[in-house]
Amino acid sequence: MSKFTRLIGLGLIVILALGFVSGVGAQDDVTRLVVGHNQGVGDLSNLDPSLADGVDAVDVIDEAFVALARMNELEVIPEPGMATWTVSDDGTVYTFDIRDDVPWVRYNADTGEVEQVLDEDGNVRMVTAADFEFGIKRSLDPQLAATYSGILAPWFSGGLEFFQSGDADEATRQELLDNIGVVATGEFTLELTTPNASSVVPSIFSMWGTVAQPSWVIEEFGDFWVEPENINTYGPYAVKEWVHDESITLIANPFWPGQDNIPQPSIDEIVFQFLDPTVQLANFEAGSMDYIDVPAGADVDRVLADPNLSQFYTTSEGVCNYYYAFNDTIPPFDDPRAVRAFSLTIPREAIVENVTKAGEVPAGFFTIPSIVAAPQVEDFPDLAIHTDPELGAQIWQEYLADTGHEASDFNGLTLLFNTSERHSAIAQVIQQAWLENLGVEVQLTNQDFGTYLQVRGEFPIYRAGWCFDYPDTNNFLGDNFHSVFGGTDIPWENADFDALIEQALIETDPAVRAELYAQAERILIWDDATVAPIYWTTSDSMLNDRFVRPGVSRIERDYFEKWTVAS
């Protein structure tokens, strides 16, 4: 998690004199965990479960809304969330028995309390199967144009047809909506039908786009329903305060009844601060932040060399990739040879050894190697991408000769990244490599995270990363790049790639699936190149010893209701 305001001077002197303790929550009886916002500078991308498409928002949504199933953060398997379920003999119909004791709640700023939401008759409004049906169908709605609509749609019978209905007339639209395999068959019973049996399906039901949503609030407030004064939630934490571009605060929900894997919270408040990782580290040292991601490069070296700081540091295998995307509607990237040349000249090893320095691995494929059916570089070395500046320069010269261009014709191509010292440092190294090997002077620009997400598809090159939503290779390749249900901003499609993805999705042999995905990777990163994988991440965090977590999350998200205060 990437977890800014510098706290130094007298406060730091006092903290250093007293030893390393958290300065948060000591002024009152509230136990408060201060966490670094995982995208650094900028506001949450979106708190609407149907529209959210970044880990930054999902961290919060997971605490405020609980899905039917929940991905265990340590074992990376789906387990009961708001429901238990049974499956039909053919594996396509899931019947969910939803808890009947979970009320909708909201934070009342006037009273300072979390309160149960009442319906028009004055009764406590409980979370029902109808709320889940509404939420799922809203997430699939093409009129909402949500990034994750295409990812969810193929997993529900009738979902793709509704997703692709576009500007259908209202009667047709209603018919398609009614035909989606999501039906509340009772007040607390939901039946979901999927087109094909797959072991992936329960993981889909753990995604944030499938949570229950409050139709009455959305209908009243529209886009503003997620603001703290309006939002209704039901998870272990409620939304207390959202100071846009600065922080968001969650407060424990006393009406969450708890269960073995989703207990009642023991930490009263969670504060996510939207700060650059380097400033987060300074605040962590000063005692004003409790949980952060470790910044790249020299900061990692300094933390590891410091006997005090290093005791709070943890590293583990990551769940994300880091890559550059190329817009194939903008020359020279409308020719795959140009993308190959730019990709081959990215100094992957130098970046992980000299810039990030936290054990990251140079990426040979887009897909991280640790998930189901992921192709391994050692098994398919000829299909992977490798850094080879000489070959990259050769391919670039062939492209220039064939098109009549000079390398200088492409000076001024812009590379976009969201504001971060790490992204900037990486981009500068790659910028220099492209100048030295290709003779192209690329310009660098950055935007806050929310703006970056909105505009990145308009740029010739942008940096991006993908962390799995469920631990299967389809989530990296199919959910990103399939021409129908892929969700990236890259205007790219390839029929051969689509066919391989579709075949792999229904194949049951993991080895065969891995081979199919390796062929799809080759199309994506070489034959019809549109992305350049750079490295696979690690998860590097620092946690104040005032708090105890059950383990290091393997899904790039944390469930803070499981955390406790150290005794």
What is the tally of helical segments?
Answer: 18
Number of E-state strands: 21
Average of pLDDT = 91
Give the class-level CATH name of the largest domain: Alpha Beta
CATH fold call of the largest domain: D-Maltodextrin-Binding Protein, domain 2
Helix fraction by DSSP (H/I, runs of at least 4): 25-40%
Strand content: 15-25%
CATH homologous superfamily placement of the largest domain:
Periplasmic binding protein-like II
Count of distinct structural domains: 2
Gap from first CA to last CA: 25 Å
Global outline? globular
List the helices and strands and how they pair.
Blueprint: H1 10-18, E1 32-36, H2 55-64, E2 69-71, E3 78-80, E4 83-87, E5 93-98, E6 105-108, E7 113-116, H3 129-140, H4 149-152, H5 159-163, H6 170-178, E8 182-186, E9 189-193, H7 201-204, H8 215-221, E10 237-243, E11 247-252, E12 269-273, H9 277-286, E13 291-293, H10 298-305, E14 313-326, H11 336-344, H12 348-356, E15 361-362, H13 389-403, E16 414-418, H14 421-438, E17 443-447, H15 449-455, E18 461-467, H16 478-481, H17 495-506, H18 510-527, E19 531-543, E20 547-548, E21 564-565
Parallel strand pairs: 1-12, 16-17, 16-18
Antiparallel strand pairs: 2-3, 4-5, 5-9, 6-7, 8-9, 10-11, 11-12, 13-19, 14-18, 14-19, 15-19, 20-21
Helix pairs in contact: 11-13, 17-18
